[in-house]
Amino acid sequence: MAESSNHSDEAALMAFKAAISLDPYNSLLHWNPNHTFCNWPAITCSSRRQRVVSLNLTGMGLFGPISPFLGNLSFLRVLALRYNSFHGHIPYQLGRLFRLRRLRLSSNNLSGSIPPEFSHLSNLEALVLGGNELTGLIPVALSNCTRLQILELCANNLNGPVPWEFGRLSELQHVYLWQNQLSGEIPRSVGNWSQLERLELEINQLSGTVPLEFGKMKQLRQLFLWGNQFVSGSSGLPILTVLTNCSSLEDLELAFNHLTGVVPTSVGRLSNSLSFLALDSNEIGGNIPEEIGNITNLATLYLGANRFNGTIPSALGKLPNLERLDLEANNLQGRIPESFGQSIRLGLLSLSENMLSV
Description:
It is a single chain. The protein has helices spanning 2-18, 239-242, and strands at 43-45, 52-56, 63-65, 78-80, 85-89, 102-104, 109-112, 126-128, 133-137, 150-152, 157-160, 174-176, 181-184, 198-200, 205-209, 222-224, 229-231, 251-253, 276-278, 285-286, 300-302, 307-310, 324-326, 331-335, 348-350, 355-357. The protein is mainly beta. The longest helix is centred in the first third of the chain and has 17 residues, at 2-18.
């Protein structure tokens, strides 16, 4: 039985090699029956059963389709084919690999939809498919992969909503869905992502209000929502208030949306770990709160291309770590604070298209 099983692994690998039409670095040159397949380059086998547990051909310049026979590597835990030129559809047969923990196929030329059969990968911890030409909806069935920690589907042509059912993925730590054609609202079920550290949804067509459930994410460090169609709703910008609960927050990007209202004074209670705050290219008005000066670790503050009025708070020039400040294209008046002249780290100061005096 063991010999038969081992033979099936070798046959699957040889079928994979046969589908490759270009191997510029001869990465598969020594893949032949004259050598034990466990000793082939890029292959790792289990010590006891001598079954393939890892296939890693990252960055080998390989060209061709991904053979569906890889679905016969029933002991496979890691499949890494990133940074190659694989094309065609992702084989649905990979959904048979129930032991698989990490599937990394990013930065290829793969097309078609994400196989819903991936819902059978109950042990999957990382699904990395970014930088391809994938189309269609994000399968709701992926919500069955409840051990997922990394979900990377960025830089594709996916459309439709972020599934509400993804709230079941409570172990997620990193989610990269940027640069697709996703639409609809962010589901409030994301509040269940209690382990989330980084969320990138920028450059999509997402709309509605930014869910206040983000305030439940105690581990959140980076939140990138710029380049969408978010609005504030009737309550202004309460998201800036609820995010004060995120004590690890370092980067917050809400630029290039349709946000209105005023920045609440509670913004000063954002975590002192916050170093990057971008609210530019929205429709935010009112005064710039003096309380922003309480965010002592702030290095970059982008508020340009809004409708801010009043004077520039002198507290901005007293931020000890401020390096970049953009206030251009607003309705600011009065004098430029003298405190800017004492800001030793400030390298970019953009104040054009206002009504300021010196």
